[in-house]
Inverse folding.
């Protein structure tokens, strides 16, 4: 990425100040704004997240916010209450209080003498969620948002539940926020009250999965802050971006289809990263696009937007790998979404094959009862480009699956959108799941997963009101796979694989289940975009990535990243063990030394569905001079046929002395999961 030092406006930074909200709480903020804004007010752009502005996001912030400020905006990074140096405690995500605070912050910004009264919001992940959710509340100053890696549906399309199946990323995310919510504030900014603030956070901390397991179906808890409940609530222009390797790309497609505001969608090959930092590449000049968007909607500049509603990276075929530096392909543009270029190609499923559209196939019942090992090469629900977290060669997974292959492709085939699998299916138990995977099979047999979807069969009609499966009864069900843009070359095959488990990506059902899939009445629908189809729009090329110079950090201890799949053939114990160790680094501008080590373990024994367990262990440390504080957190989730069981623990340390400890033991009835 090109570091830019010569910007249109000279910039000044306020490293730390307080913004009061309506209940008297003070939120910690950092700001970059043009020097000229003292006399010539500018719009303000807010990024609102809980990830510590002075250290954990400071490098990323230093690239984006001074760059935007240098183009004429007051850019403000605010830590949500209970994080960083902000007062209060944080006990869950996307609460009413959090969103009300954001409205207060926007009102405060709009009222400052250096602000012209107009505001925007920018964010990725939590910041993208926050911007979209706050936009739906219609704060008067908010004029536009730029969001990345977000969802509009907190139940069906976030890291907690997918198709009514419990995701292991729910445990992983709970581990993240269990640790982050208990981090100490910086004494250099809050003084001696840091210890009082920190102890209050420790006392209020807890594993958030307690709340998430208390709501295993779509209820009012999940409807809150899910913008899909009322798209018309969003009345400001929206620039929405994501990557195909991310977990959130479906939301971009939905917003382009459902919003009735000026909007622009962008989906590249990236993981959970801003597009100017995007990996797998190619990364793009995203910050230039953000400037153009805000110039048009916050400054009323005459920026010409002859743009498609949706621009996506059409990925070319690649051998399976757990990490890619770049994904070859090309940009394609769609004038609207759903696109007039895409036709739905419904292909019947015959015995172990995907037939041609309109072909008559034999009707027969095919059975599958998958081992728990299917899923060990699935990768993460959401790739963070923490190699190796992408899915690997699917051939081993396919050995425990029901497989349907197309004939050899005689010409290239490209798809854009969400494939849909329709099954005529019966099961042998009242709670069952189906994992459906779409793969690109090369002539040498290697299978690269292109997309996938999950369905808890008790949720076949509703996520709100699931109902048990009647063993032996046939059901017509629909599984929507994740949207994707993918090119299948001539000489390859398209493969659909079905399994009854997908651990550890998703928690398996209470007991092994045998599914019977009836061919003839089952099908797959592919969103085919004819090769060579005119885009009907002229695609302006993206600039190369650029930003302000990144803040410097010094590595003090090396890190380690490792994924290990293991199997003991004596006791048949299998495991996926993940190490994400950032070592210890010093943030040079603040002098803070931060250590972070994360261990995740997902285990099982043979085909005992009650033997599965997930565990997260986090160690975080903060040090400057002779001051140090840190936490260790652990979660262990196990199950019986009728319950989930959680044990969790947190310990707080000053130096080597433990100053706080608490344990949790909770059980949760399995609500048809």
């Amino acid at each position: 990425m090109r570091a830019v030092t010569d910007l249109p406006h000279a910039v000044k930074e306020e490293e730390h100040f307080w913004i009061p909200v309506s209940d008297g709480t003070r939120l910690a903020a950092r700001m970059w704004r043009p020097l000229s804004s003292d006399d010539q007010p500018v719009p303000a752009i807010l990024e609102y997240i809980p990830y510590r502005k002075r250290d954990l996001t400071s490098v990323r912030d230093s690239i984006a916010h001074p760059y935007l400020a240098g183009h004429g905006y007051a850019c403000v990074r605010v830590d949500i209450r209970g994080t960083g140096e902000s007062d209060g405690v944080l006990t869950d995500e996307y609460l009413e209080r959090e969103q009300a605070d954001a409205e207060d912050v926007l009102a405060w910004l709009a009222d400052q003498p250096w602000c012209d009264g107009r505001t925007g919001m920018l964010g990725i992940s939590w910041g993208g969620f926050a911007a979209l959710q706050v936009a739906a509340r219609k704060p008067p100053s908010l004029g536009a948002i730029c969001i990345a890696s977000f969802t509009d549906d907190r139940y069906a399309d976030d890291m907690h539940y997918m198709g009514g199946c419990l995701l292991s990323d729910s445990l992983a995310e709970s581990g993240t926020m269990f640790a982050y919510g208990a981090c100490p504030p910086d004494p250099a900014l809050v003084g001696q009250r840091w210890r009082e603030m920190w102890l209050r956070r420790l006392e209020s901390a807890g594993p958030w999965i307690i709340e998430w397991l208390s709501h295993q179906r779509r209820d009012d808890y999940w409807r809150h802050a899910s913008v899909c409940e009322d798209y018309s609530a969003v009345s400001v222009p929206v620039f929405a971006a994501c990557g195909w390797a991310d977990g959130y790309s479906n939301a971009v497609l939905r917003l382009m289809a459902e919003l009735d505001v000026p909007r622009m969608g962008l989906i590249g090959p990236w993981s959970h990263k801003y597009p100017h930092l995007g990996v797998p590449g190619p990364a793009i000049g995203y910050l230039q696009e953000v400037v153009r968007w805000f110039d048009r909607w916050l400054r009323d500049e005459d920026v010409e937007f002859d743009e498609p509603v949706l621009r996506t990276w059409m990925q070319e075929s690649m051998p399976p790998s757990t990490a890619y530096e770049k994904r070859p392909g090309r940009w394609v543009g769609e004038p609207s979404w759903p696109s007039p270029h895409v036709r739905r190609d419904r292909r019947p499923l015959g015995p172990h094959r995907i037939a041609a559209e309109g072909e008559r196939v034999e009707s027969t019942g095919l059975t599958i009862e998958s081992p728990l090992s299917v899923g060990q090469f699935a990768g993460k629900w959401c790739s963070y480009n923490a190699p190796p977290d992408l899915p690997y060669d699917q051939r081993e997974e396919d050995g425990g699956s029901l497989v349907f292959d197309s004939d050899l492709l005689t010409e290239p085939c490209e798809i854009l959108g969400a494939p849909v699998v329709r099954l005529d299916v019966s099961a042998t138990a009242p709670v069952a799941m189906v994992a459906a995977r779409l793969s690109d099979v090369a002539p040498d047999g290697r299978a690269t997963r292109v997309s996938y979807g999950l369905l808890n069969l008790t949720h076949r009609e509703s996520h709100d009101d699931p109902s048990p499966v009647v063993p032996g009864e046939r059901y017509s069900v629909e599984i929507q796979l994740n949207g994707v843009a993918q090119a299948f070359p001539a000489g390859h095959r398209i493969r659909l694989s079905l399994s009854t488990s997908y651990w550890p990506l998703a928690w398996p059902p209470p007991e092994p289940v045998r599914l019977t899939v009836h061919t003839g009445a089952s099908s797959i629908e592919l969103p085919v975009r004819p090769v060579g189809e005119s885009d009907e729009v002229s695609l302006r090329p993206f600039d190369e990535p650029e930003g302000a110079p990144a803040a410097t950090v010094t590595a003090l201890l090396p890190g380690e990243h490792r994924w290990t799949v293991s199997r003991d053939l004596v006791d048949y114990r299998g495991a996926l063990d993940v190490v994400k160790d950032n070592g210890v680094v010093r943030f040079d501008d603040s002098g803070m030394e931060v250590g972070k080590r994360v261990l995740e373990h997902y285990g099982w024994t043979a085909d005992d569905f009650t033997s599965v367990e997930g565990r997260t262990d986090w160690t975080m440390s903060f040090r400057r001079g002779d001051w140090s504080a840190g936490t260790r957190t652990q979660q262990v989730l196990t199950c019986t046929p009728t319950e989930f069981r959680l044990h969790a623990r947190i310990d707080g340390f000053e130096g080597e002395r433990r100053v706080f400890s608490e344990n949790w033991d909770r059980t949760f009835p399995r609500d048809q999961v």
Remarks:
- The mean pLDDT is 96.
- The CA atoms of residues 185 and 197 lie 7 Å apart.
